[in-house]
Design goal:
This protein is mainly alpha-helical. The protein has one domain: Growth Hormone, Chain: A (Up-down Bundle). 81% of the residues lie in helices and 0% in strands. The protein is built from 17 helices and no strands.
Length: 422
């Protein structure tokens, strides 16, 4: 007997939503806890800003690749089991990283961290797509994404403050212990998957499922949007510390850490724009989110600390709202193999963090903050063009499917899929 999907307004929805929030919190708190520490690593280990940024890009790059493996394992071992192992082990590795004797060891542990963290993000999206009612999908994904924003904010603020008062090593140990406690809540609060069916592993079928999504022009557009927006977002936060901790701003490590309080804007936007997407359509809300992101980035060019903070807050609001909507688009467009579709989206998403982040190193070296914002602005505009192209493709598919929808189940499936999106 197939159980009902999880719907808004029920106790099961808020238990599952709270657990997903907790899982997103753990993932982003650990993943980005080294970001405010990049200037500290440059000083302590005597490395350049470009080399120091590897403490983040190594993790996100490994995460991107390993999510494909995690998605395949989840088809055989179950969604919840892989996600629970991911959050517990990643919390332990975070503690071990605090005892790194040199920068090479730290990079190796951060590489392992990326591989372990891969067990949650792509599977969480697939879990939401399978277990939640379609009308509750945007809100559920918004809760998960809001957890990532709070986690990213909390991890950065805590490591910044603890580093200023004690050391970066104590900061990482503290964060690891907090993550362990949140892992217990995630394990107890997340319902077992009711609509998941175990599949035997087949390399051929796995390759076909990934290939099916990679052959879809609309899905590729969503993947590209995630790649570009995440690349621009991480680039700004990687280098804003180098901007604000030097003259004329001269912020302390603690003061800079508190800059990440603007992540609250991301928490609000991911839930609010997720609800708007359910009501008004995902493409329209996604476009608005990208415009907000671009305007916020441009504001940071004004040489005023207050305006830079406001611009960063607006930029963050636009990014997390856009990411929440783009994430739910993957679940809407993928009729089958949702875990593979989610993992591919996040492969591009975190690959953008690493690859666009590498390009930002050159922009910073050559033209400093102006060059960085110029690159980010170009990435957002390109993402906007991809969205326009995706909408045009979907409308064309709808017209063709409407004309042929009585000819067979394939055309009817296409019609229903596109109708849900636009």
């Amino acid at each position: 007997m197939v159980m009902d999907t999880i719907r808004k307004g029920t106790g099961a929805f808020w238990r599952a939503g709270g657990a997903l929030f907790s899982g997103g919190f753990i993932t982003f708190a650990i993943l980005y806890c080294t970001q405010p520490l990049l200037p500290v690593f440059s000083q302590q280990f005597h490395v350049t800003p470009t080399v120091s940024s590897l403490a983040l890009s190594t993790t996100t790059g490994t995460l991107a690749v390993c999510m494909l493996i995690a998605a395949v394992l989840s088809e055989r071992l179950g969604r919840k089991r892989i996600m629970v192992l991911s959050v517990f082990i990643s919390s332990i590795v975070a503690i071990v990283t605090a005892f790194s004797p040199n920068f090479i060891t730290l990079l190796i542990l951060r590489l392992i961290q990326g591989a372990v963290l891969a067990g949650l993000p792509s599977i969480a999206m697939a879990y939401v797509g399978e277990e939640f009612d379609p009308q509750s999908l945007g809100t559920a994904m918004g809760l998960y994404v809001s957890g990532t924003t709070v986690g990213g904010m909390f991890g950065r603020i805590v490591t910044g403050m603890m580093t200023d008062f004690f050391s970066w090593r104590i900061a990482l140990v503290t964060l690891g212990i907090i993550s362990l406690l949140c892992s217990i809540y995630f394990w107890l609060g997340l319902p077992a998957a009711a609509h998941f069916q175990v599949r035997a592993f087949s390399l051929k079928k796995t390759a076909q499922s990934f290939g099916r999504h990679l052959k879809s022009p609309s899905m590729l557009c969503v993947f590209g949007i995630g790649f570009l927006l995440m690349g621009g977002f991480v680039s700004l936060y990687n280098y804003i510390g180098y901007l604000l901790m030097k003259p004329p701003y001269n912020l302390s490590q603690t003061a800079f850490g508190w800059l990440f309080i603007v992540y609250i804007m991301g928490t609000a936007s991911s839930i609010w724009m997720g609800k708007l997407a359910d009501r008004f359509g995902r493409p329209k809300v996604l476009g608005i989110g990208m415009i907000i992101m671009l305007l916020g980035g441009l504001l940071t060019l004004v040489p005023s600390l207050i305006v830079i903070v406001i611009g960063t807050a607006i930029f963050t609001f636009g990014f997390f709202g856009s990411h929440s909507v783009a994430s739910s688009l993957v679940g809407k467009l993928a009729e089958v193999d949702k875990a593979q579709a989610s993992s591919l989206y996040l492969l591009f998403y975190y690959a953008g963090s690493s690859l666009v982040g590498s390009l930002s190193d050159l922009c910073w070296s050559w033209y400093h903050w102006f060059g960085l914002i110029l690159m980010i602005g170009m990435a957002i505009l390109l993402a906007f063009l991809l969205e326009l192209f995706m909408v045009a493709l979907l409308k064309k598919t709808r017209r063709e499917a409407t004309f042929n929808k009585h000819t067979g189940p394939v055309e009817l499936s296409q019609y229903n899929c596109v109708k849900r999106v636009i």
